[in-house]
Design brief:
single chain; Rieske Iron-sulfur Protein; four-stranded antiparallel beta sheet; three-stranded antiparallel beta sheet
């Protein structure tokens, strides 16, 4: 039996935008809303260089990574051809305008993936 965690209302997610969901372990999850009010959830990490998908531009049922403009499918988390790679997706349920994510997935899904390093964090890791 699936236990659902209430995240927010659909109207709390900007149209053609996203919100981030922080987890106790692992990287954040990005929840997206397209122009048709469809809601999707992916790990907030592009499969290419780890860019924050939550900062990308939503178009149709894809999001463009803000780092290198890779187009990632919101339904499956996979890069559009000619690019390759996938980011983990999360199960979403909408009830009466509220967004729910699977509690088990939030606690266990993709928690072992390393966080991308950039900026000051990258400098620190290289000097260690």
């Amino acid at each position: 039996m699936t236990t659902w965690k209430k995240i927010c209302f659909v109207k709390d997610i900007p149209v053609l935008g996203s919100r981030r969901v922080t987890r106790a372990q692992g990287m954040d999850v990005a929840i997206f809303r397209n122009s048709e009010d469809k809601v999707f959830a992916l790990l907030d990490r592009c499969p290419h260089k780890g860019g924050p998908l939550s900062q990308g531009i939503v178009h149709g049922e894809s999001v463009a990574c803000p780092l290198h403009n890779w187009n990632i499918g919101l339904g499956d988390g996979c890069a559009k051809s000619p690019d390759e790679g996938c980011t983990p997706k999360f199960t979403v349920q909408i009830q009466q305008g509220e967004v729910f994510l699977d509690s088990h997935e939030l606690a266990t899904h993709a928690i072992d993936l390393p966080k991308p390093l950039a900026g000051p964090a990258l400098k620190e890791s290289l000097s260690a």
